[in-house]
């Protein structure tokens, strides 16, 4: 079914450029809740020994003060990326109070109510206050539970040497950055079409603590007194009780090209939304949200995959994209793997790289309105029912197709990419990663989502207690082997430097917050 990627790789190989696919830049953003040893959410501040969450390059927070986020540098080799993530976790545990742990799963631990989830605090600088107010707005709009869900983001870009040669092979005579932008948006469109494969293969959230649902248990089954689940779910994190939001379902964000994407995204940021207008912007002197529009800022739009460009200080992401083009893609479809100490493993990283390249090289026409509806149907269906025997998904213009048949066709297409990535290497690491996914596809009980339910049954533990036991196991793994002293000292210095940088930002502000926000939103 998929042939263009194979044809393009053949052309690259004929020109001696096949190995230019090797060594793409890879980075990870991995979130994890800080918890107490009784399994409840930690309400203490972000540990000072970790540095400033506002200015530290590698250790920060996401929505909550308790939702730690580790951001790795980028690497060409998956092994180096995984080692970096491991090192950062060892530093976290070496400087984490003994009464606390890092939660091993995507779906949150026991949460009494929304107000028990502390919103992240970034200090008194204008940018720090803006980040906090944005999160306060998310609370008013969606509630805090959804924002406490953790995930793993995979950031990826092809080597620059690849792009110039690939442009020649495609006989494109335009500007190189324009070509790169067009190709990355083709990748993004295909990832939307085929990205349901990610929760199927890597979803690890088929069950949730009863407290997370806050009484909304109608369509769920009781696993035990404290756990609800869906028997064939893969990723409730990626379902409509997680990141999928009904308020955003009507957004018509275009992935045709950079300009169409930026314009449609900015329209959502500039369009008032009645429900949010009813909330208002301020309660007295306190901000409740940044504005009353459909999106406060670009990051509020939840998507499987985003085009990204590093921003300058106080620069909007959409402006950076418009002015300098796409630098990399951020893939946001991975659950935290509760069985892995770092939440992700090398096989996943290698498969993700090969699949991402396949999405780039395969044919990718624009996405129409009717096709977008089918994409949303497939994403939600796989999240809620992905392991259901005989499950059919909907292909645009081709009707229903058995999930496992379609998935096998995709893996057949990815195989050509794996062979190219393994060329001239000492081991067929990418092909081995693909073989593992084929085995899981043939036996869905091997999938991480099935394995989590199986572990709950075998241990007779509810979701919260099973994940707590895995969190304790991972703590032992990280504490047993100390981080290299040189790496420890480097991270200590970064932490100290980040605290000084935050203080400098706070002392340097020469305008009030209201003026800062006005300038930010008016900037073009």
Please supply descriptive tags for the structure shown above.
3-stranded antiparallel beta sheet, Creatine Kinase, Chain A, domain 2, 524 residues, 19 helices, alpha+beta, 14 strands
**Total domains, how many?**
1
Fraction in beta strands: 5-15%
- The total beta strand count reads 14
The quaternary state of the protein chains shown equals single chain
Q: Given the structure, what is the number of helices?
A: 19
Low-confidence stretches: none
Mean pLDDT: 95
For the CA atoms, what is the radius of gyration? 23 Å
Largest sheet: 7 strands, antiparallel
From the 3D coordinates, which CATH architecture would you assign? 2-Layer Sandwich
Structural class by sheet pairing and helices: alpha+beta
| Helix amount | 40-55%
Which of globular, elongated, flat, extended, rod-shaped describes the shape? globular
Distance between the termini: 44 Å
Could you tell me the CATH topology label: Creatine Kinase, Chain A, domain 2
- Determine and state the CATH class: Alpha Beta
């Amino acid at each position: 079914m998929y042939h263009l990627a194979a044809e393009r790789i053949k052309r690259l190989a004929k020109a001696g450029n096949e190995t230019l696919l090797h060594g793409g830049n890879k980075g990870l953003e991995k979130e994890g809740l800080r918890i107490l040893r009784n399994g409840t959410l930690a309400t203490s501040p972000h540990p000072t020994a970790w540095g400033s969450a506002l200015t530290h390059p590698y250790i920060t927070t996401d929505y909550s003060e308790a939702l730690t986020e580790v951001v790795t540098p980028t690497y060409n080799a998956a092994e180096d990326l995984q080692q970096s993530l491991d090192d950062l976790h060892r530093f976290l545990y070496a400087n984490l109070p003994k009464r606390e742990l890092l939660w091993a799963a995507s779906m949150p631990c026991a949460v009494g109510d929304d107000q028990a989830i502390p919103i992240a605090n970034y200090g008194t600088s204008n940018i720090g206050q803006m980040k906090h107010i944005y999160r306060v707005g998310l609370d008013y709009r969606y509630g805090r539970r959804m924002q406490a869900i953790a995930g793993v983001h995979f950031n990826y870009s092809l080597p620059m040497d690849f792009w110039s040669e690939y442009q020649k092979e495609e006989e494109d005579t335009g500007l190189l950055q324009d070509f790169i932008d067009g190709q990355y948006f083709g990748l993004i469109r295909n990832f939307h079409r085929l990205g349901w494969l990610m929760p199927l293969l890597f979803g690890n959230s088929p069950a949730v603590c009863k407290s997370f649902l806050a009484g909304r248990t109608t369509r769920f089954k009781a696993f035990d007194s404290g756990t609800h689940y869906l028997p064939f779910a893969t990723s409730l994190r990626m379902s409509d009780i997680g990141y999928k939001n009904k308020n955003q379902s009507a957004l018509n964000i275009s992935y045709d090209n950079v300009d169409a994407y930026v314009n449609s995204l900015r329209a959502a940021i500039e369009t008032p939304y009645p429900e949010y207008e009813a909330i208002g912007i301020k309660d007295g002197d306190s901000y409740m949200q940044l504005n009353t529009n459909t999106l406060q800022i670009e990051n509020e739009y939840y998507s499987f995959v985003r085009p990204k460009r590093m921003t300058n200080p106080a620069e909007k992401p959409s402006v950076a994209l418009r002015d300098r083009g796409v630098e990399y893609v951020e893939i946001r479809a991975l659950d935290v793997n509760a069985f892995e100490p770092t939440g992700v493993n090398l096989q996943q990283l290698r498969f993700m790289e090969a699949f991402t390249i396949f999405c780039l090289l395969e044919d990718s026409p624009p996405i129409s309105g009717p096709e977008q509806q089918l994409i949303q149907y497939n994403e939600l269906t796989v999240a809620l029912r992905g392991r259901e025997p005989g499950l059919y998904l909907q292909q645009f213009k081709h009707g229903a197709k058995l999930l496992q048949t379609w998935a096998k066709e995709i893996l057949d297409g990815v195989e050509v990419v794996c062979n190219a990535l393994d060329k001239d290497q000492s081991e067929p690491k990418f092909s081995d990663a693909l073989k593992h996914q084929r085995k899981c596809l043939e036996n869905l009980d091997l999938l991480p989502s099935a394995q989590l339910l199986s572990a709950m049954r075998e241990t007779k533990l509810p979701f919260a207690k099973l994940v707590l036991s895995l969190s304790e196991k991972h703590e032992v793994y990280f504490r047993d082997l100390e981080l290299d002293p040189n790496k420890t000292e480097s991270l200590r210095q970064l932490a100290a430097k980040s605290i000084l940088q935050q203080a400098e930002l706070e002392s340097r502000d020469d305008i009030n917050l209201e003026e800062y926000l006005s300038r930010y939103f008016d900037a073009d």
